[in-house]
Amino acid sequence: MSRECLNILRQENRALIAQLREMLQSVTATEYQSVREPFERGGVGKHVRHILDHYHAFLEPSGGVVDYESRERDTQLETDPSAASNACLSVLSRLADSEDVPTVSGVRQVLESESCVIGSSAVRELHFLSSHTMHHMALISFILRSLGASVPDNFGVAFSTLRYEARTGS
Q1: Closest listed residue to residue 97, CA positions, set 59, 129, 53, 51
Q2: For labeling, which of 6, 38, 127, 137 is most exposed (least CB within 10 Å)?
Q3: Nearest to 92 by CA among 51, 143, 142, 131
Q4: Cα 130 to Cα 126: distance, rounded to the nearest angstrom
């Protein structure tokens, strides 16, 4: 595992979680808990909980195997933006030091009733988490805008897109 890649991905994930936490501090409880069409399966709170559940699964692998399927699904994180903000702080703290990043040897994949373990690494899972988090932050941004909430222009926009726009003036 490349220490340089690990550090880049730790910082990228920390930047995303910091953005998520900043959003949590500005959203109202009503906006956070709102579940309405066309988002009845996942309002802001459900997306935030989903993101944080994935980080917790990564940070606490069993025997080096990350199991996103059996994640905790802490429902308090869906309804309480303060609890979600505190969970973000915990993730930020754990990702602050490369020594706190767990050793990962695989990720459990489930298909119906069967499962297998696919070889992986902390670097690969941090790459997945950054992409996964950005995807859900884009959905959160869309949901908040549909509720009439104010959302920073760069929230939910991929870092590669922001770099491209800065480079091209787009």
Answers
A1: 59
A2: 38
A3: 51
A4: 6
